[in-house]
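Practice set, problem 2.
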Amino acid sequence: MKFTAQQIAGILEGDIEGNPDIEVSKLSKIEEGIKGSLTFLANPKYTSYIYSTKASITIVNKTFKPEHDISTTLIKVEDAYKSFSKLLEYYNQVKLNKQGIEQPSFISESATLGTDVYVGAFTYLGDNVRIGNNVKIFPNTYIGDNVTIGNDTIVFSGAKIYSESIIGNNCVINSGAIIGADGFGFVPDENGEYSKVPQIGNVIIEDYVDIGAATTIDRATLGSTIIRKGVKLDNQIQIAHNVEIGKNTVIAAQTGIAGSSKIGENCQIGGQVGIAGHITIGNNVKVQAQSGIGRHVKDNEVLQGSPSFNYGDWNKSYVYFKNLPKIVKTINDLEKKVDANN
């Protein structure tokens, strides 16, 4: 796929200095630019590379004025970084803009599909599935009975969406994600054997949610597991039954959230955090990586450690943690001196 400088400038509302007809078909770092590639200059630390880059087109700020001869065609914009990000988004939309139904695939006669839908090969759509407009479902995907998927959502290869799940608009579900598997519900009997508790609830994912690869979101025992609008989930996260995550919260990889816990809005949770069941975490909470949360958390707290406590207190305590053997030795030596004097 090729674009001319004129086409790119039109998308970015930028001004061209150089050849408007020059074409690019790939992206590159400015220091690694080659002929036929597009790059950008936003950080002044990289300014020297614009005089040596072989990239055909470079996006720069309007304030940039070359001090030496350059061979690259410039597209001048208000903010080079934001414009390059906008271009990446546009490129991604073009790249993913597939339509049609590939074969072999199975689509139940009772399923309904919107306009401009793409269904990749070896995909299964069960009974009463409802797919919105401009949805892209990539190959080897399973979508169970009575699932609803809103407009402009992308489901990448190998994702599994169990029955009754509800997915909103403009969501992204990455490969290997599993939505709506049974929650971890078992009851021991008098012999110590476990009986499974039926999980008859569902999962609700609101609009503009991103779900990372191999992340699992369990269906509720009763009611719904709910992921609110704008939540961003990294890869390999486990969300148990009846959890609720508030809007615009972001969670990094390998975090586990036990059943029936409620997480507030605009929280930031680091990687490998463990959150116990049946607790409530307030709004705007920040949890550092590898922390363990076993209690209710108020709004605006910043936590670290396992079990976690106030971030500032944790940093102060760490000074003593790492010197603990020396501190113990000092105390022992002092005790010996006291005993000797007595």
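Problem 2, part (b): a different protein.
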Amino acid sequence: MDMDVTNLRSLGSSPLQVNPLSFGGATIGDLWENLDDSFAEGVVRTAYDAGIRLFDTAPFYGHGLSDYRIGHALRQLPRDSYTISTKVGRWLKPQARHKIDRGFWLGTLDFESIVDYSYDGIMRSVEQSYQRLATNRLDILLIHDVDVWSHGSRELADKYFKQVMDSGYRALTELRSNGDVKAIGVGVNEADMCARFAKAGDFDCMLLAGRYTLYEQTALEEFLPLCVEKNIGILAGGVFNSGILATGSQKDARYNYKEAPAQVVQKVSRIEDVCKRHNVPLAAAAIQFPLGHEKVSSVAVGMSKPERVQQCLDLIRHPIPNDLWAELKHEGLLPESAPVPTV
């Protein structure tokens, strides 16, 4: 399989063509670390200059900070030369600095994030995104974080699912039919919620974070077959499961934004051993694995430093022998049904 980053893949039923590697904007929203504005914008330009053309962001990322930095970095480039994916479900309200709950964002703009999946809330979010991103159009709009992982309970996830499908979904379909956006979808952390949305509406693509990775493949059970049936393109996020598939099973490795449990470390250690036997970095296998599925159009990776951009390019181009995937399946570390990249 040719992993040249400049090659383009169709994104589901949309007219868009995207790179196999895309820029995940959470890290330049000051996730886990504070970045200087000019430094963060330089990382975006480094990615663009390297051939990466899909930039994924969200109002939630640094409460507008990721949007601002991506917009400022790209605004003087030809608008048709890049694709912007952003999200809806939150709009931003000015707030006193000392009153803002920043969560795991070390630095943010001085805005409070208001959860709102209604028609009016989504339209307000889109209008704000235009301004922060310094653009008069968006390419991909994703319903953000309608899942238990984000909201803490099934009751709240169900409430927001109903709100968006009863109200906000109409805003997305209007924007798509008017030509204001080219693709609509969902961006969440749960494969079963993606499947639920796929059954409930007409979506072009979905960003699934952390549930279709070298470590776990729950999306294979129901969601990915639905994507084949309904021609839904996938942007695979969280391909390193927030750290452990990049760092390996070292002390303090992160899994799902927390210290990795012992059983996770144990399985990753076994995967790591297989990779070592084939002289393949664990992170290279992790970044390439999702792209073996016919509906995965791109992997979205956070890049907070220029050298991280080059590292991701090297990983996605690293040759991986077919025997590595075969051994992972033989050892029970990948299901036999999992499609894999082939040389």
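Answer key, part (b): The first strand starts at residue 9 and ends at 10. The chain has twelve helices and 14 strands.
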